[in-house]
Amino acid sequence: MTLQVYLSGEIHTDWREQIVQGAQGLDVAFEAPVTDHAASDDCGVAILGAEDDKFWHDRKGAMVNAIRTRRGIEQADVVVVRFGEKYKQWNAAFDAGMAAALGKSLIILQPAEHDHALKEVDAAALAVARTPEQVVQILRYVMTGKLPG
């Protein structure tokens, strides 16, 4: 059985690459949003035409990006949502809520300093991890039934 995993959340660190690399050898397929920040921000206006108002510029991009995000979350067996240290990721919180509403197995990846702010998000998750390696260990356990050695 191939486990479909959607990697959502912050795009400024290499946490996705760490998870993908660590899961080598497991029957896991990964999907993610577009992580090129400029492309993600500007996809709507680049494809559908310029906007004078930044609100509509951002809205076009959000709507185009939502096509990929919705598909990824809907088809996932497991959704991993990363909340990073530097930026407020409202979109990540939305993705976590969407995954929870769809009954997806949800793993949150966050630093301890976010525990209070994300307590409701964390309560909807099946696991709250601190490191990408812990996410890999969860996936390995789910796929093989083996504990980390």
Automatic annotation (TrEMBL):
Q: Which InterPro entries match?
A: YtoQ_family_protein (IPR019884)
Give the highest taxon in the source lineage: Bacteria
Q: Name one Pfam family in it.
A: Nuc_deoxyri_tr3
NCBIfam families in the cross-refs: YtoQ_fam
Return the protein name. YtoQ family protein
Source species, please?
Answer: Citreimonas salinaria
